[in-house]
Structures are given as C-alpha cells and as structure tokens.
Design brief:
Transcription Regulator spoIIAA
Amino acid sequence: MTIERQAVRVTSPSGEPRGIQLTEESFESSGLVVSVSGELDIATAPALRDHLTAAIGAGKHRIVIDLSDIDFVDSIALATIVHAKKELPEHGKLALAVDPSSYVMLIFESGGLTKVLDLVATRELAIEHVSR
C-alpha cells in the first residue's frame, strides 16, 4: 500500500484554527482508503470533496472513507460523501468505516443514510466490501 498524508487546516468564521487530516492509502489498482481525522463540517468538507473528486477523476473507483477518528460531522459533510458516491462510475463502490457505537454513526442513522451508503465497522471490512 502507498501512504500519503495531507493536513488540511482552515479557520472558522471567528478565526479559530480548525482542520482535518487526510491520509490516503492505495490498494489494488483502483482502490483508495481516505482516513479522515478531526472535525468534518462546513469549513473542512470542501477539502474532502476536492480530494475525493480528484481521486475519482484519476481512476479510483473503489473508495473507502475511514471516519473512525472523526470528532464531529455535520450535514454538509454528509452531503459531500453522498456526492462522492454519485460521482463514481456505475461499477464503482464506496464504503465508510464507522464505529457502530459512535456519534458519527448516530448522525448517519438519524439522517436515514444507512439506506443510501454502505457503512461497516472497520476499515478492513470496508476494503473487503469494495473489493467484491
């Protein structure tokens, strides 16, 4: 696996530093794991959107987004993830690694997104899921 780390720092409307860190790992020729840590919200979601759009444009169509280190997620972040799934080619797959007992899973469940997105408990299971 090839690993590339990218720290994305942004400031909130009040000028406070905020950010996410994106770690990218390739598997197979068209597989990609993007691990996200920090807060995924209106300020940081565009960085994830740009990252995923570039990856899909570069031919990655088996994508895992690992959200196990996310502290906060909002509706803009959810829309970013749904948008990425829609950008995939017909044969593409996207899975999210989310701890079943986490706040993040509660947000996905509350938004009804467990019916739209493939949510699995670990990154390993997510990689297995998109590799089928």
